[in-house]
Amino acid sequence: MALDSKIPSGPLADKWDSHKFASKLVNPANRRKHTVIIVGTGLAGASAASSLGELGYNVLSFCIQDSPRRAHSIAAQGGINAAKNYQNDGDSVYRLFYDTIKGGDYRAREANVYRLAQSSVNIIDQCVAQGVPFAREYGGHLDNRSFGGAQVSRTFYARGQTGQQLLLGAYQSMQRQVAKGSVKQFAQREMLDLVLINGQARGIIVRNLVTGQMERYVADAVCLATGGYGTVYYLSTNAVGSNVTAAWRAHKRGAYFANPCFTQIHPTCIPVSGEHQSKLTLMSESLRNDGRVWVPKNNGDKRNPADIPESERDYYLERKYPSFGNLVPRDVASRNAKQVCDDGRGVGESGLAVYLDFKDAIQRLGHDVVAGRYGNLFEMYEKIAGEDPYKSPMRMYPAIHYTMGGLWVDYNLMSNVQGLHVLGEANFSDHGANRLGASALMQGLADGYFVIPYTLAHYIAGTKVEKVTTDHDAFKEAEDNVQQRINKLLAVKGSKTPRALHRELGQIMWDNVGMARTDASLKDALVKIPKLREEFWHNVSVPGDQNSLSKNLEYAGRVADYLEFAELLALDALTRTESCGGHFREESQTPDGEAQRDDDNFTHVSAWEFQGVGQKPNLHKEPLVFEEVHPSQRSYK
Amino acid sequence: MRIHLTVWRQAGPNVGGAFHAYTAENVSPDMSFLEMLDVVNEQLIKKGEEPIAFDSDCREGICGTCGFMISGIPHGSQPHTTVCQLHMRKFNDGDSFTLEPWRAKAFPVLKDLVVDRSAFDRIIQAGGYTSVNTGGAKDANNILIGKDIADAAMDSAECIGCGACVAACKNASAALFTSAKITHLSLLPQGQVERTTRVLNMVERMDTEGFGSCSNEGECEAVCPKGISLKNIATMNKEFWKAVLQS
Ligand SMILES: Cc1cc2nc3c(=O)[nH]c(=O)nc-3n(C[C@H](O)[C@H](O)[C@H](O)COP(=O)(O)OP(=O)(O)OC[C@H]3O[C@@H](n4cnc5c(N)ncnc54)[C@H](O)[C@@H]3O)c2cc1C
Ligand code: FES
């Protein structure tokens, strides 16, 4: 099937407006007759549910947590971008668009990104109207900060809890619709299959995570807003319940998976302390506004940081990238941290860390100003690492943080499967090969508040769907499929825990498909992953009863899906022999060690079509056309 | 380190439960309390026994998913700390703990240490929002809010909805949770229009969900991992009586 991105014609700045005008509408009186399933209640899912509920659709909302308010978006710290230009520092919709395209290393669609930048402005207005308590200046205006790789201050924030406040805003709007009856909320439900009828996405099978019972839901259209797949690496900054299951099961039903190898590694996370570690904690990128990154100049210098004189410190980001300094984009900062550690100059017990130092900032601004800006982050660091950042520098190391890849969608956020829409981190669309800081929250909310209400209406108004109930054979087939897989998991009765197997998978992924990837490392991963999958299905242990709450059973199912998905991720990385953004192929670098793109061969989206577990998937390419911006070598020097 | 645990095990809702004893061996001081429980569960799974059910997600103190009683104190004895952020370095080799779920009529136990907190969602449904539809909001800087007001609203809005306040209260009152939302919205210009109905409806819902009434014990504030202040409850009471007089 040829991939049609459905990008509207006309000048970039007018595409979205003319597309909205050309889109079909659903009569207000008819909307309640249309049911929409939304899986996921993060920023993307909750904003979509509330907006569609307000419009009058009959919305069914699902999440795995015990309340929609606990979706992983809650953990976002740093902020959300918007092209408001409140600071009069030269920002504009065009500049945000340009920065995002460039930041993504020219692997995103221009039209999508432009629309994102346009919507950003409305997002802030919407959130403020909801009562999101963004940081303010003394005069009562909204405050901004500059954030990862941006030379303007366009990031809005609510202390170090921006994601929490934005999510609570969306959640509260959604609860208002629940009270009105237009949104029905199903918490503690895990989507385990997608139901297709006549080639259209018409429903889902979920497991009720409290009772263990299977449930069927039918609708006119299905939206997935199920987040990213960072936990395929086991350790990541994502919540431990994050998973690829919903997206992967949709993929197995025909939805193409795009650019799975585009994963983002965040430069500033608290380093691993031991095998017991269950997740890594991110320290917000905003810390790099005032903190200085350094390592000792000399290999193996194990002195206390306070005893290392200035002349023996290497502020390597400031040295190599004088114009961006500590604020280079994430991929560049992460790779450089790995490089200095590979050189033997890493700090801390493991040697896998670099310093992030606030000594100069405290001297320049005073303790109180620094505490005002970063107090809660410092506290968090002290809790976890047991050291006081006011007194000694933080130790930081990169960790998996975000996944730019996801299910393929067109301009309308619809996948190649009719009626299946994908929102937020779960889709692949807007960040290319690298996401800029504070852009994921923006994308999730743009998708849910400002894009899907139009494009879904267009789909519903223009599509005939057969009248069916959940007794349809397709529901039975899908439910049987899910049940069989669960039975199979329970029947193995092996001796390894899902966690142990997940940890092994994570190690393979981090070592072979991590910050730097080579032909050999990827081929090695492609041998090891299927072996581990074999072992899983012969040796996993899932004790307990499937008809009750069983975290271990849920977890085992997610690990099983990761063991299939990981192979696709590694294959995509192997196929893309260029370096771009977060995907660094060692074979493809500039003489000074920066990522070297291969525009002639890879200016496209790789969209993979499932052919069976362990079978080579089919590759479809969507060419990326740049009409506005001319791809150039990214330079932050 | 070696840690002794006495854990409430209950197979499902509406059935009895009992305490069981476990020992966690080789506990590293860098582990969080939940990572220590992960290790205990790994051992149980390897033996073919059902692991202890407890809930968590972000494991960085912000989602409010985790939480249980550690020897009678919600989230344990470390101030301003959720159990996922509680590190074993705060304890000593040989320490013993009793782990129990939140105990409250409005939070029925689902299994072991996991309870049903959906009553909190229903309190928010009763009015914890501003009635604004998507689209058409005016420019954000047209609403000026003093920094002190915005900061105070944020202090209240930081609540993570974990339920520790209810678990700590001898009346199982949800006053701290409910008042934090009421205060957050009543401080801001955006929250004024529905100020009266909001407080009346949310307070009423709190009662019908089976939460007890507040008798100013202050236990909630003491255990709140986010340091949500008792002042919120005072504000709620003021707002409530004002609303009663008005309506
Ligand atoms: C620690 C951290 C800090 C971050 N900070 C920032 C920041 O400062 N700025 C920024 O822009 N971005 C930030 N990000 C990224 C950003 O938070 C996420 O990309 C974004 O919130 C994802 O939102 P989402 O709505 O797509 O998905 P999520 O918030 O991940 O929500 C996924 C939803 O899907 C549900 N779900 C998943 N699987 C299933 C299933 N099988 N069945 C049913 N439901 C399911 C979950 O229950 C949940 O409701 C940060 C990320 C992390 C990890
Ligand atoms: S797991 Fe999120 S607060 Fe503890």
Overview of the molecule:
The complex is a heterodimer of chains A (637) and B (247). Chain A is an alpha+beta fold and 637 residues long. Chain A has a domain at 266-401: Flavocytochrome C3, Chain A, domain 1. Helices cover 37% and strands 14% of the residues of chain A. Chain A is built from 17 helices and 19 strands. In chain A, helix 10 runs antiparallel to helix 11. The longest helix of chain A has 25 residues, at 551-575. Chain A is globular. The model of chain A has no long low-confidence stretch (mean pLDDT 96). Chain B is an alpha+beta fold. In chain B, strand 3 and strand 4 (73-74) form a beta hairpin. The longest helix of chain B has 16 residues, at 231-246. Chain B is elongated and about 60 Å long. Chains A and B meet through helix 3, helix 5, helix 6, helix 11 and helix 12 of A and helix 1, helix 2 and helix 3 of B. The complex binds flavin-adenine dinucleotide and FE2/S2 (inorganic) cluster. Residues 56-59, 61-66, 82, 84 of chain B line the site of FE2/S2 (inorganic) cluster.
Topology (elements, then pairings):
The complex is a heterodimer of chains A (637) and B (247).
Chain A lengths: L14 H8 L5 H4 L3 E5 L3 H13 L2 E5 L17 E2 L11 H11 L6 H21 L24 E2 L5 H19 L2 E4 L2 E9 L2 E9 L5 E5 L2 E4 L20 H8 L4 E2 L4 E7 L22 E5 L16 E2 L1 H5 L9 H13 L11 E4 L1 H7 L1 H19 L8 E10 L2 E2 L12 E3 L17 H23 L10 H20 L5 H15 L6 H21 L11 H25 L23 H4 L1 E6 L8 E6 L14
Parallel strand pairs in A: 1-2, 1-9, 2-5, 9-17
Antiparallel strand pairs in A: 3-4, 6-7, 7-8, 10-16, 10-18, 11-15, 12-13, 12-14, 14-15, 18-19
Chain B lengths: L2 E8 L6 E8 L8 H14 L22 E2 L2 E2 L21 E5 L8 E3 L2 E2 L2 H8 L21 H11 L6 H5 L6 H13 L7 H14 L10 H5 L7 H16 L1
Parallel strand pairs in B: 1-5
Antiparallel strand pairs in B: 1-2, 3-4, 3-5, 6-7
Helix pairs in contact in B: 2-6, 3-5, 5-6, 5-8, 6-8
Bound molecules: flavin-adenine dinucleotide and FE2/S2 (inorganic) cluster.
- The low-confidence parts of chain A are none
By CATH reckoning, the class of the largest domain in chain B would read Mainly Alpha
The domain count of chain B comes to 2
List bound small molecules. flavin-adenine dinucleotide, FE2/S2 (inorganic) cluster
Provide the low-confidence segments of chain B as ranges: none
**Biggest sheet of chain B, open or closed, and with what strands and sense?**
5 strands, mixed
Our measurement of the CA-to-CA distance between the termini of chain B, rounded to an integer number of angstroms, reads 60 Å
Amino-to-carboxy terminus distance of chain A: 42 Å
Whole-number mean pLDDT of chain A: 96
Return the average pLDDT of chain B rounded to an integer. 97
- Secondary structure category of chain B: alpha+beta
Strand order in space, largest sheet of chain A = 5-2-1-9-17
Q: What's the multimeric state?
A: heterodimer
Mind telling me the CATH class of the domain at 266-401 in chain A? Answer: Alpha Beta
Q: What is the total tally of β strands of chain A? A: 19
Number of helices of chain A: 17
Give the fraction of residues assigned to helices of chain B. 25-40%
How do the strands line up in the largest sheet of chain B?
A: 2-1-5-3-4
Largest sheet of chain A: 5 strands, parallel
State the secondary-structure class of chain A: alpha+beta
